[in-house]
Each structure stands twice: as structure tokens, then as C-alpha cells.
Design goal:
Pfam families: Acetyltransf_1
GO molecular function, one term: acyltransferase activity, transferring groups other than amino-acyl groups
CATH architecture: 3-Layer(aba) Sandwich
Distance between the termini: 33 Å
Order of helices and strands: EHHHEEEHEHEE
Mean pLDDT: 91
Low-confidence stretches: none
Strand content: 15-25%
Oligomer: single chain
Number of domains: 1
Keywords: Transferase
Protein name: Putative GNAT family acetyltransferase
Largest sheet: 7 strands, mixed
Length: about 200
């Protein structure tokens, strides 16, 4: 598999079944269903995987698309969560390393974030994150984003680690992102100006 043969599409309600198949019956990443930055830790812990799936299903149904699915041969094989910071309340929490530089960035519809990636184990370590990030940048730009931010991780013990759900710093650097803050060792807040 090469990253060049992956085509990204917005996660719209008609693609929910593809998303669910990609995430599997448990919802990927220990049943997260990509709710980690969408609900508080207390709420998330009170939810089981099925409740998280329903939450995300409702979010997709509500629109706009919360991210992109990567397809190869008609099958969804990758995911990137990308959208306005305002859609990710936990990403904006003052207690997190991803908190905004300026308070108004948390509600500015033109300040977007790339917050999560997911690929099944067999697709990891093959450059898929680079391809999905390129598609996320194009999607943000096409939807009037002025700034795109990320809070990746510098390194993990294994190149295919699930801890890379936030993305690798190297992937963002290769796409032109620059570090704008570092609130914790190994976790830079990075930014790409889109216009």
C-alpha cells in the first residue's frame, strides 16, 4: 500500500457505515470513537463504547463533517479528525497542552485543528499520516480556515504506537507546520498559516 493511492472524503452521514467498519465493533483506540476531545473526561468515562458510538453518530448526523476518511479500493482505511477548534471543547481546555495561544482562538471559526488520526495496525508506519494530513490541510483551506493547528507527539517507543493518534511532530514539520508553544516536553503546539 502506498499513501498516493488513498483518496480522502469528508465524513458525512452517508459514509457512517464506512467509519464504523474502519473503527470496528469496539470503536478503535479502546472504544474512543474519536470522542476524546469532544466530551469531558468525566463524561467519557461514564460512557461505554456503545454510548460513544452513538455520540459520534449523532455528531456526524448533525454536520458539518468532523473529519476525513481515507479510501483505498473503495474501502475506508484511514481517518483524520479536522475542523474548527470550537468543535473540540477538550482540545481548548486551559488544562491541556493543546490550549489556544489566545482565548479567542477557541471560538474563532477560522482557527482549525487536526486533533486525531486513526489507521488500523496494518496501515501504520507506511506514510499514511502524511497523505491524510495533506488532505486535511486542503479541506481546511477549502472551508475558509485561516490557521490550522496541531499538538502532536515528538516520539513514541514504537513507530506504530497507538499513542500516535495525535500525529507525529515530524509529519507536521514535513507539511510546513511550525512550533508556536511547548507546554509539555515532547508535545509542541504547532501551526500552519493557510492565508
Amino acid at each position: 500500500m502506498t499513501p498516493e493511492d488513498v483518496e480522502a472524503r469528508p465524513l458525512t452521514p452517508d459514509r457512517w457505515d464506512d467509519f464504523a467498519m474502519l473503527f470496528g465493533p469496539q470503536g478503535a483506540c479502546y472504544g474512543c470513537w474519536c470522542t476524546y476531545f469532544r466530551v469531558s473526561a468525566k463524561e467519557r468515562q461514564a460512557m461505554n463504547a456503545d454510548a460513544r458510538r452513538i455520540f459520534m453518530h449523532d455528531r456526524v448526523a448533525q454536520g458539518p463533517p468532523p473529519g476525513l476518511l481515507g479510501y483505498r479500493g473503495g474501502q475506508a482505511i484511514a481517518w483524520v479528525q479536522v475542523g474548527p477548534r470550537a468543535d473540540l471543547p477538550q482540545w481548548n481546555s486551559p488544562k491541556t497542552v493543546s490550549r489556544p495561544l489566545a482565548p479567542e482562538d477557541a471560538t474563532d471559526p477560522a482557527v482549525w485543528a487536526v486533533s486525531c488520526f486513526y489507521m488500523p495496525r496494518a496501515a501504520r508506519g507506511k506514510g499514511m499520516s502524511h497523505r491524510m494530513l495533506a488532505q486535511a490541510i486542503a479541506f481546511a483551506r477549502d472551508n475558509a480556515a485561516r490557521v490550522l493547528e496541531a499538538c502532536p507527539i515528538d516520539r513514541t517507543k514504537q513507530s506504530k504506537s497507538i499513542g500516535l493518534y495525535v500525529g507525529s511532530t515530524r509529519v507536521f514539520e514535513a507539511a510546513g507546520f511550525a512550533e508556536v508553544a511547548r507546554r509539555k516536553d515532547g508535545r509542541p503546539l504547532m501551526r500552519l498559516e493557510l492565508r
